[in-house]
Amino acid sequence: MSERSEVPMQIEQFGQNDQIGQNTVRIGAVELAERIGILPPTEQQRVVIESPMHPALVVAGAGSGKTETMAARVVWLVANGRVHADEVLGLTFTRKAAGELAERIGKRLATVDEYRRRGLLSRLPVLVADGTIAAVWERVGRSSPRLRQAALTSALDDATGTSPAQAVDPDALLQRPRVATYNAFADTLVREHGARIGRDPDSALLSQSASWLLARRVVIGTSDERLVAREEAFSSVVEAVQRMAGEVLDNRVDLTALAEFGRAWERTLAPYTTYRLKKHTDAVAAARKSLSALPVLAELVAEYARRKQFEDTLDFADQVAGALEIVERAPDVAAHLREQYRVILLDEYQDTSVIQTELLAAVFHDSAVMAVGDPQQSIYGWRGASADNLTAFPAAFARETECGSYTLMVSWRNDTDILTAANGLLAAAPGAGVEALRPRPGAAAGRVEHHFAASVDAEAVAVAEWFAQRRAQHAETAGPDAPPHAGAVLFRTKRHMQLFSEALDAAGVPNRILGLGGLLQTPEVVDVVAALRVVHDPTQGSSLIRLLAGPRFAIGVADLAALQALAQTLSHRDATLAPLAPELVQRVRGSAGADEQLSIIDALEFVGASRDDHRLLQAITPIGRERLRDAAAMCERLRRGVGQPIPELIRLIEVELRLDIELGANESRGPARTASARLRTFLDEVRAFLLADERGSVGSLLAWLDHAEETDELMPRPEPPEPGVVQLLTIHASKGLEWDAVAVVRLVGGELPKTPKSKRGWLGFGVLPYPLRGDYTALPALDWRLGDDEDALPVAIEAFHDAEGAHQEREERRLAYVAVTRARSDLLLTGAFWAGQKQSRNPSPYLQEMLAALGREQISADEIGENPYAEAGGRVETWPLDALGARGPRVRAAALAVDDALASTPASPDKVLERLLIEREERRAPIGVDAPRRIPASRFKDYVGDFAATVGAIARPMPERPYRQTRLGTLFHAWVEQRSELAGVGPSPDDALWELDDDLDEASEASLEDAESLARLQATFEASEWGPLQPIEVESEIEFAFADGRIVICKLDAVYRRDGRIEIVDWKTGRAPTSNTEIDERMLQLALYRIAYHRAHGIALDDIDVALYYVGDDRVIRQSEVYSEGELAQRWKAARDARSASRSISSSVGAPADS
Fold this sequence. Notes:
- The protein is of the alpha/beta class.
- It is about 50% helix and about 10% strand.
- A six-stranded parallel β-sheet has the order 5-4-8-9-3-10.
- A hairpin with a 2-residue loop joins strand 21 (about 1045-1060) and strand 22.
- Helix 10 crosses helix 17 (about 315-330) and helix 17 packs parallel to helix 19 (about 355-365).
């Protein structure tokens, strides 16, 4: 009998018989929970857990324990012998959710297996009845979660007098459910079966920023004159291309049909130019103009797709589209998946797209598919989520079978009053169609407070004080072992995040802004970005003014005005400072925009290069000239650093602006480690961007930051609640998370609900027409077709706009519902009448509805009062700002005390300070770094390609995080070395290899992915021409003297003796070069290896061959002609001479000018 067929028999006596439908149940869900030491399910949960194995839809409200229920269903099915563990597939949207579900299932299945190995399955009813199992789990419950399984083993030993009679079955360990994200499931299909559709299985996946960058390059590179004639902003076109590229794939729209759709509507609407009402004329003209862009956008999307194919990349929509194409072309793939997975769990089903539904239904229709979702938490329509996937589930998955329908509407997260507020939102929604959430048994009342202030500043202060109170109460009432209090401030938009963060800082509440968009508002990051703009673009005068007026230089208003006047003067003079002719000045003025005629950055450089008595500088005060020269020198140092990696440039900016000192010394921001967290997080975001941008330019980074600052729809990297810290994030980013206390802020009209950018729907620019979407029946419909009465069109458009506005409002309401249900016990609802605008903001209707549901008096418009910002036209501040803020008197008193001490007792710097001072002077001095004496052969191509940039990059090295490709290359080289048996002492090549990585978490996703990739490289190498050969040397290092006294270090991967000749081979795990120029650069390193081996062993150069082997691509590169030593020396000298010439020219250009 096979191992699989034995498993049900082993579990047969696990429990009593029960009847559900046509299936025999050996143990019920409640009894199973009791025996494995977890809380029993509610009646709703029990029905879901024990439901028959056919398609089923579960509507699960927020916090209703859907993850717990799905885990319990898997354990129940396995324990009752319905399926084996590895026949279960669970899909969700985030790795965090997948990990949580897999962990719960794994722990409970381990408990069942522990009973089985001890032979306790048949005795469990007795052990439950006499209280033994209850005592065991009471003891286990006192252990930490990490030690739970060990505690169970120990408790069973003591309580039952048993020990495992059977050893752990290694094969059984591999029989575990597969839990993954939807995209990971599709990606696996593409990687395993991509050849069936001509897809490279190793294509790189585009991140959100990489996708946007590619769309931007496509728009920049187009020569389509139709686009030039249009009026849309460049950024709008880029966003439209990126958005439509995803929508076209998600809805399987043919681009030719899309273009023809636009042309047909444009032809039809072209004659409709005049109506009696102007608003009707404008509405039809706007629709025709937007739809006329579809042919242009279709071609740009096609070019976007061609670029992806050429660059061997794909995005998330490509993964799913490719997987669906595979399933449709190869029915055997779908049949295999149906045979492999008998039970499928689909989590957060309301957020799936049309094409995701089509893929899953094509494979698993009429199977035991259970979809769990909540229509009230469908908030990702802008990201491709289908509008009617929940209602369409039965038709998609239950084609020939019945479809079960269940609900989970008991909230295990929220206290009673919080649920009352949330249900109030749903009760006011037209046609909600979902029952209200109910509190858990014994739920506390909880606290829901509201505060509607006069100003947004007062609102922020109220929120900060509320969190300070909640944290203090938690500290008083919680036990010593309780986790720190966790809180969040949730925003519809990121506009006011920094204001609330400052208020929390002032109240002494640790806080952290999540997401790139919010980070870009923090002062530290704004300063860094301003410096990047200044060094990249000489027209960025506003960014320079921020730096000059800030705490680093503190230039006053009069000196800034004088600098502006100097810029104006210089714009009317030539390079010799002679005045331009009046007619030339007029021509310049007419040919340039107002912001292009002068540059205060040029004026700053002039101040830095001129003598103090220059007549053009006399309007600037002496202290102003001194500080401006300091600023000019800093800008010059930053420009010299532009050639180095961007993370290193950002670090240099931090040092030059003295942000590291300011953050470390400013106690209002906490200790230096916490204070610099925002800059470190920003640097992480920059690194993530650079991984997606092979050019790695400052210009592309700034373009992406502009985009991130303008949109509220960028998803931050998922981060769990941070104990002891109040997190500030958007509502979209809070989905799936929960905190002890939550403040939902800016509950005012125009913010939550947010005023829609447009109600035009698919009649607007860059939106896929709804009639072409797979879920068009659930979207607002335009009640007019081509050929209908012309006069009926404006009325139909007006009705469509109203329906589109109502459609968007429903998603805003769902956002508010998601925000409110993130709170466990404390909820604060806030808003303010005034936030700097001319008209007051009314309380959000959502806030009023929640107050009514709680039985509280609604906020009256009579409480508005006078605009506190009216007289000043905005927030009132005294300028120039005191860089020290409220702590200024204390800091100045301390500085005076230091001055007094120095005056009475001469002091000299200690060794640490002395080194810091030397470093400062070296940084201020002109960079004159030359190439080091010892040159790695692998860097030779960089030196001869751009000597100055390479020298600059090593002038101030900064540790970089290891990239995956580097890590993989290290593993592969170590494996080859061990395989040769010329190095290493491990009992086997694999043992020796993995000994290198004992510190790695073997269960981590990165290490597992590395192992899979390494296995592919090993298989490719084994099949290569070097697979059966034995090298004579591996990883040998040779040094030899080269031109101008340099020592070249050569580390040879492998040396072989073949047919009486020597062959040196260099292994590469990255992508192979595609151009002759790149190949020539790579062969420079091999030419040096050839010379080194000749020098070391006396073998004639003509008897030494060299080869590059790109293992990942299985490509060998050899050249008949290899560079000689003289040719290499000549290239080195030419590169050095070019650098010296460039430095000489720079020095002469920078010489001070006479007055």
